[in-house]
Amino acid sequence: MAQAAKNLTAPHPFGKEISQQQLVETFNQCRQWEDRYRQLILLSKKLPTLPDNLKQQDIEMSGCENRVWLGHQLLSDGYLHFYGDSEGRIVKGLLAVILTAVEGKTPQQVLETNLLTLLHQLGLEQQLSGSRLNGVKLLIHTVQNTAKNYTKAPPDVEL
I need a surface site. Which of 34, 38, 77, 148 has the fewest CB within 10 A? Predict the structure, then answer.
């Protein structure tokens, strides 16, 4: 992925320097919701702000309380790169969690990743408000649909 990494749109540390296992270990040390909340804010600070030219309407999520952008690209080596941003710190932290789990995976690997299970492992799912949980589920659905679109085989051509 070294060659493809040079062409990343809006690079970030999630899925590379910050692994899913590291997230689980960090969040398992949190005993209270406030500690998890603090961790989400710290994660949000590590997700670089998208430049204005990337905050395009076609990657802006509708139905979220905060403005959220989620873009992607299929790299030349067949791996997916997801990038995003949010105006809300908690939502941006949740986006960072999702990016950690799906970054640098093939579309098939993304489809095999259970993101709701990860939220549960981190102790986040039960602490989110209904509207915020719906927004996270929308992000997850978008990630999965993106991966699904890349796994669709071209239709058979009849001769």
Answer: 34
Distance CA 27, CA 51 (A): 29
CATH architecture assignment, domain 20-151: Alpha-Beta Complex (3.90)
Q: Is 89 helix (H, G, I), strand (E, B) or coil?
A: helix
DSSP codes, 99-147: HHHHTT--HHHHHT--HHHHHHHTT-GGGS-HHHHHHHHHHHHHHHHHH
Interatomic CA distance for residues 82 and 104, integer angstroms: 8
Q: Which of 10, 43, 64, 110 is catalytic?
A: 64
How far, in Å, CA of 140 to CA of 95, rounded?
A: 9
pTM for this model (two decimals): 0.90
Tell me the per-residue pLDDT of 122-146, one tens digit each, with 9 for 90 and over: 999 888 888 888 889 999 999 999 9
Domain ranges of the chain: 20-151
- Tell me whether residue 64 is one of the annotated catalytic residues: yes
Bridge partners, 86 (sequence order): 68
